[in-house]
Amino acid sequence: MSKINIIPVVLSGGTGSRLWPLSRMAYPKQFLNLCGPNTLLQDTLLRINDLCISQNIVICNEDHRFVVAEQLREINQLENSTIILEPFGKNTAPAIALACFSALKNKQPKEEESLLLVLAADHVITDPEQFLISINESVPYAINDKLITFGISPYKPETGYGYIKRGSQLSKNVYKVDDFVEKPDLADAQAYIHTGNYFWNSGIFLFKASIYLSELERLEPELFETCRKSMQDVSHDLDFIRPQKDIFSMCPSKSIDYAVMEHTDNSVMLTTSMKWSDVGSWTSLWETLNKDQNGNYIKGDVITQNTTNCFVQSELGLVATIGVEDLIVVNTADAVLVSSKNHVQDVKVIYEKLSTEGRVECINHKTIYRPWGFYTIIGIGNGFQIRRLTIKPGSSIDEQVHYHRAEHWIVVQGTAEVIKNDELIILKENHSTYISSGDVHIVRNSGESLLEIVEIQTGLSLTEDDNHPSFKKE
Hints:
Blueprint: E1 6-11, H1 40-46, E2 56-61, H2 65-74, E3 81-86, H3 92-106, E4 115-120, E5 124-125, H4 128-143, E6 147-152, E7 163-171, E8 174-181, H5 186-195, E9 198-208, H6 209-219, H7 221-230, E10 235-237, E11 240-242, H8 245-248, H9 256-261, E12 267-272, E13 276-277, H10 282-288, E14 297-305, E15 311-322, E16 327-331, E17 336-340, H11 347-356, E18 367-370, E19 373-381, E20 384-391, E21 396-401, E22 405-413, E23 416-420, E24 423-427, E25 432-435, E26 440-444, E27 451-459
Parallel strand pairs: 1-2, 1-4, 2-3, 3-11, 6-12, 14-15, 15-16
Antiparallel strand pairs: 4-9, 5-13, 6-9, 7-8, 7-9, 8-12, 10-11, 16-17, 18-19, 19-20, 20-27, 21-26, 22-25, 22-27, 23-24, 23-26
Helix pairs in contact: 3-6, 3-7, 6-7
C-alpha cells in the first residue's frame, strides 16, 4: 500500500430519485443499507480503510448533516472527519474546490501535500481489493501532478453512464484522456463497446488539491474565486463547517468534467476491471445483489410463485407475486412501486411529479431520523398527528416551544425526564403529560435503554416550523 497520505473526499449531495420510493429527498440512497448491513456512505469509507488516511472530508447539504454525522459515528469515523455543509447544490466542481481549500488550510507548513481521493457516497464496489490496487497504481501519477480519473472496463452497452475515450498509452493500465462522452443512446453505446477504446466514467478522481485548484483557477476563474472567498471565513458548528452562504450562492454550477477534466492537459485515466456500479436505477441495483435460483432478489415479507428475474422488497406487510418476470416491486409504509425493469429510468418522472405536486412521499419516509434518535408517523388527519418517538440513551430533544399546537406524551418504554416551564417531571412507563401551546419544554433520556414515547399532536400547525418564533401567535 502507498505511504503517501490520502484524504478521501466523499460527495454526499445526491437525491437518488431513480430509487424512489426507498430513496427520498430527506433520506436519499447513500444513507440506505441497500447492499448489506452498512449504508452506501459507510461502505464508501470502510472499503478504503487500508490506505494511509489521517482524515476524511465529507460534503453534504444542511438537511443531511445529522444523518451524515450519525452514520460516521456508527463506524467510528466521525472524530477524524471534516463535514462541509454545501449551502447550495452547485455540482461537483465547486464541491471539490471547497474540499481542496479545506485540505490545504489544514496542511502543516513542512508537511508533504496529501492526495485527495474523490468518491461518490452512493456507489457500489463489490471487489474492494481491486479498487485499492487501482488506487495505488495511480498514486505515482498523482504525485507527479496529474489529475487521475478512473475508467471502468464496460461489460455491456450501458446507456446510463458517461464514457471516457482513452488516448495514448502511458503504462499498462494508464492512458491519456482523449475525450469525455455524455450518456449515449443504445446504438452509440454498442459502438463504444465494439471499439474497445471507451470506458465507463466512474466519477472517481485522485490528485493534489493544489493542482486541481491551479487548473480550476486557469479554466474557471469565477468559480475558483467564489469558492476561495466562501472558505475564507467559515463558521464552525459542532462537527460541521459552513462556507459563507451569500458568497457561495453566486458560484457557477459545473461538474468537474466540464470545468476541468475535459480541458486540462494534465488528465490521465487509469482503467480498471473492478466491479463497480453507481446503482442509478432499480435494475442496476438488482444486478449487484445476490439472487435466488430463479433470478429473484427478495427482501422482507414476500411470497413468490412462478416469479423470475424480479426485485421484490416489502418493508410493511405481505407482498405476493404470481406469474411475473422482470419486475421491480417495492413496498414501503406509504408508497408502492411496480415497474418493468425496462422502464426503471422513468421512476425519476414519477418522483418529479410528486415533487411538483408537493407530495410528502418524495421527501420523507414515515420514519424520520434526528440526532437524538428517530420518530415514526403512526397516523395523521385534520388537525392531529400521532408519532412514536424513539430517543437514544443519553440524548435529549432540546428546548422547544410550539405556538400553534399542543402535545400529549405517553411513555411506553423507559423513563423520561421532562422539563416543562422549568418544572421537572419524571415519566415512567404508562405515565403521561400534556404540553400546552406556548409551554417551553425539554425531554431527556437519562437511562441506558431506548426511551419510547407516543406523541399526539393537535392544533392548527403540525409542521416542524412551529418551533420558530416567526410562527408565534399574534
